[in-house]
Structures are given as C-alpha cells and as structure tokens.
Sequence to fold (183 residues):
Amino acid sequence: MADDEPVTVVFSWRAKPGKENEFAEWAKGVTSAAAHFPGNLGATVIHEQDSRDFHLIVQFVDGEALQRWLNSRERTRWHEKTRDIAEARTAVQQRTGLETWFYVPAHAGEAIKPPPRWKQWLVSLVAVYPLVLLFQAFIVPRVSDWPLWAKAAMFPLVILTLMTYVVMPLVSRLLRRWLYTPS
Fold:
C-alpha cells in the first residue's frame, strides 16, 4: 500500500446471538469516533436487517493516518468493548485505488447498502466519457508522433489518475443520494 494515497478498510464482525442491538450501538459509536479522528475521510456501517453481520468501513487520507487510528488508545478502548457483544471479527479488507472510487457517506453509524452494480457502472461511464473525449481532442493530437507504447501509456496514466483523484470522488459525492437509495 502506498502511504500517500487514500485507503479504505472494511472490518467485518459477527455479533453474538441476542446482542445485535448492543453491537449496532457499539458500531455507531466506534464509527463516530473514527469519523472524528484526524485524517479520516468517512466512516459508516453496513448492516442488513435480521443479520448478525456488521461491516464497518473507514476511509483515511493515507496509510499513516490509518495506522494512527489503528494504534490509538481510543480505538483500543472501543475494541475492548467487543468482548461481550461480538462473536468474532470475520474479516479485514484494505483497499486503495479504483475500488474506492465510490464515496462512503461520512454520517457515522449510518447503515447503508453498497450501490447496485448497474448504478456504479452508469456513474463510471458518465464520468469517464467526458475525460476520454477531452483526451482525444487535446492530448492525442499533441502526441501523434510519439511511439505507440508511449501514446498507449498516456491514456491510462491521464484517465485513471483523473478518475481516481478528481472525478470519481466529486461525482460520487454529488450523486450519493441516488447511489445509496434502494434501486
């Protein structure tokens, strides 16, 4: 993981039988604490009704900010509270780059479902098309005499950089109400 790019981590937990409500309150509290921690970009909980599985998602500006949260006394105190309410932490997933294009709402503790794939596809298509058009209009003519390998390298370099750091964070924030509503 590069230390200078945003990072998203998903912690998957299973509540003890009968402790789902207590775990939901804990999840709301820990994501609220994470959301207010320096370097945090957002924190939320994904939980389907009638399930004991909870997925806590936190986003940080970089790996260093994430490590500060993971090593903090505050997080340790929250983690200790899981002994009585959690059966197990079932998985930890850490992601950077393309899979984190879709903005996680920053409302701590808000239970959300990920956007349907068709919405993700549509938003990506609408976001990338203008970039491809601008690339073809303004960059391709300037590099027409370059070797094929260099021209080919320019396309993903420019498009993916703009999509990851500029376009998708903005577009997914602007469309979050539509993305995160039931289809």
User: Anything to note?
Assistant: Residues 36 and 47 are 21 Å apart (CA to CA).
